[in-house]
Amino acid sequence: MPLLEIRNLKVEFETASGPFKALDGVDYTVDSGEVLAIVGESGSGKSVAMLALMGLLPDTATVTVDKMEFEGRDITKLSATDRRQVIGKDISMIFQEPIASLNPCFTVGFQIGEALKVHTDLSSSDRSRRVIELLEAVGIPEPKGRLSSFPHQMSGGQCQRVMIAMAIACQPKLLIADEPTTALDVTIQKQILDLLLKLQEESGMGLIMITHDMGVVAETADRVVVQYQGRQMEESDVLTLFESPKHPYTKALLSALPENATGDRLPTVSDFREFLESEAKKVSA
Amino acid sequence: MSGDIILKVRDLKRDYVTKGGLFKKESTLSALKGVSFDVERGSTLAVVGESGCGKSTLARILTMIDPATAGTVEIDGTAIDISKGNISREMRQKVQIVFQNPYGSLNPRQKIGAVLEEPLLLNSDKPAAERRDLALSMLEKVGLKPEHYGRYPHMFSGGQRQRIAIARAIMLQPKLLVLDEPVSALDLSVQAQILNLLADLQDEFDLTYVFISHDLSVVRYIADKVMVMYFGEAVEYGTRDEVFSDPKHSYTKTLFAATPRADIESIRERLANKAA
């Protein structure tokens, strides 16, 4: 039994100009101890899919799904209370903008402790001990002194570490990282990716990396799902994807990488216009 | 092309002084600690570094927005020093800039036509009809259509906006274009289109680029020369091949090691390590 299984997920948004299909029938499977990368450009629906799983979409969204099971339990059928037991504890998420996702009015110690307060019955002193442990685990120097720091007193990389500490506070079985390193410098990106992989390996949790960066995919993923405009183009293990991409869109993405440039100009996705136009027809049909 | 230096920078320094208060002493932050380089006409210099390394400070000095604290900048043979005032219009027309965020750098209330005509309106006495013609032909050059002339920025995608920002920057036919992370906010396929556009425009107008970026794969693709900056100092400066094949400074090596590798051998190696 896979850790997470999603079949035929569709998300529609109600907009002023009629319904907009953000996701049109995508499937995901993640096993424990596996790193799945969801790759796509903006508008591919990669974040929407995970927000649907977490129940974080606004009211204008209609989610339909044939199957959405976490450890064999149907998440869609859970009551709101039961759902909260799972979301935030067994499944947790890290967002793209670390500085924007932390509350500027509370200390980082408080914000990490909050997750523990909600999901565990640790006493207050046990909690603060656990928070220090967590900060240490994510590699923040002098974790004790950092408990009373506010987010604005930390750098972007450190804020992302705090977010990770928060996400792993309750030892989740599945961690979703939505573009965790996009806002960071390359050397910091390397540290954060290494940290995520280390934590994932130690705890054996499943990890979903949402990214648009093929380099990040190559460095982290076991398996890859490629999305374009709300539909799944290709799914394969990471080596096969880079060695012999099957779908024209994946080929286009890989050849648009500057390091793969062979000629004077880079090939772009619009060189694959025929494919894009046929896609557009399918969407409007 | 060789020997024709359009931009000559020598020992450029810039200090920011933070004001002291009642309980706080005045302190000085050196954002640039003596940077020197030359850029040849029609070539591209890439400036690489992380946030806080002084690359945007450098861009602001080159575009005559901020003065330098010390050192000299010569553009096309003329020394510029805005701390002494009186930079001529002709001088300012020679250097233009394209900013990182195409959402923040266009006025949401200004139609695209007006965006493109404004530099002409301010700097030349061309009549309205001629300005319009120039704007329309520029739209075409950057891969947009004449019907985009009357639209507002919010009607465009990020890649299209960056095309508009580039079009605005080259309206006055500058000699030197400073590009401050022009593709880092864009999707991969759009990034490729913009890089191609920049290469086309460079060929057509014999433009010189100072290309600021933190993305080494982009730099490797576009640059002729590379300068790596670290805490206000140029720790590495050389031709692209020199820097990429044989990085000297430990920071450059760290930077290369941190850049994700997407080639098949490194994926294979990683998977082998993981299985072990």
TrEMBL record, chain A:
It is a peripheral membrane protein. CDD domains: ABC_NikE_OppD_transporters. It comes from the Bacteria. InterPro entries: AAA+_ATPase (IPR003593), ABC_Ni/Peptide_Import (IPR050388), ABC_transporter-like_ATP-bd (IPR003439), ABC_transporter-like_CS (IPR017871), Oligopep_ABC_C (IPR013563), P-loop_NTPase (IPR027417). One of its GO terms (molecular function) is ATP hydrolysis activity. GO terms for cellular component: plasma membrane. This is ATP-binding cassette domain-containing protein. It comes from Stappia sediminis.
From TrEMBL, chain B:
It is a peripheral membrane protein. Keywords: ATP-binding, Nucleotide-binding, Transport. Gene3D superfamilies: P-loop containing nucleotide triphosphate hydrolases. CDD domains: ABC_NikE_OppD_transporters. Residues 7-256 form the ABC transporter domain. InterPro entries: AAA+_ATPase (IPR003593), ABC_transp_ATP-bind (IPR050319), ABC_transporter-like_ATP-bd (IPR003439), ABC_transporter-like_CS (IPR017871), Oligopep_ABC_C (IPR013563), P-loop_NTPase (IPR027417). One of its GO terms (molecular function) is ATP hydrolysis activity. Coiled coil: none annotated. It is found in: Cell inner membrane. PANTHER family: DIPEPTIDE TRANSPORT ATP-BINDING PROTEIN DPPF (PTHR43776:SF6), TRANSPORT ATP-BINDING PROTEIN (PTHR43776). GO terms for biological process: peptide transport; transmembrane transport. This is Dipeptide ABC transporter ATP-binding protein. It holds the Pfam family oligo_HPY. Belongs to the ABC transporter superfamily. GO terms for cellular component: plasma membrane.
